[in-house]
Amino acid sequence: MSQQANLIVGLIAQTSIHAGAGSSAGIVDLPIQREGHNGWPCIFGSSVKGALRAKADAVFKDDQSLIDMIFGPSFNSEITHAGAISVGDARLLLLPVRSLTSAFKWVTCPAALSRYKRDLEMMGKTIVLPEANVSGESQAFWSSDDSDLYLEEYRFEAQKQDLTATITAIASLVNREGFEQTLEKQLVVVSDDMFAYLVQNATPVNAHIAIKSDGSKTVKDGALWYEETLPPETVLYAPIMANSSRVPKPKDDEKEVNRLDALAIANMVENGLFAEQNRWLQVGGNETVGMGWCAVTTELVGGR
To answer: What's this model's pTM, rounded to 2 decimal places?
Structure first.
């Protein structure tokens, strides 16, 4: 019986995403979730798992026992046991950044690429990623012959590099026709320090207001707030580790439950939750105004 099976889940934002971190003392009232040690945007594993369960409630609505087996029973259930999957944070790999050189560029950095490689190795998949030694904040690597590159208000001294292996390793996260060819034109590797600056300062911040309910169509007093989002086309990835079912053995007078091993659990997520025509996931807030929708890819990459 398989004891563990691993999935790598690729997420590419189709709309803006607001996975909120709560209130803030800064100018942005509703910031997005970020990693504590480097400030990079992410979506916490708890948020991803909640989104997966909400989707499971719709897809497996006629089989509550299966939902409970995969995610664990709801808080008011008489049965208590852990779920069969462990969901990691959705980590940032490519950030779309405005550019005068083209509509936008997908920007990453050596640290993000190196971590992506290590995460895949931990899950059981080995990829080839050549080192990208970007030395200065004004330096960047891309596949173009042009030496001038503009991101936001900054000009970079771009150097042509063969990024084929990097593009191939990233392309598996996005199920989009012609994505590798597009990425060849759009991918830019900047220094770790510049990437840290861009992820802090190149994310959209939108002003919101609330209207009075008296029909006057005027703004409520004090009802103005600023909300940060991840832009469409952001590429993230999240690990999911599936274990064998943790449903306890029944007592003498209880009905036997059909338990699934780790590989079967992983297949339920990969092919049941995300069937071929249903590879979408809504994460974060503001669902009723169309935010948080991601196209999903899943890949079974290892286990034991």
So the answer is: 0.92
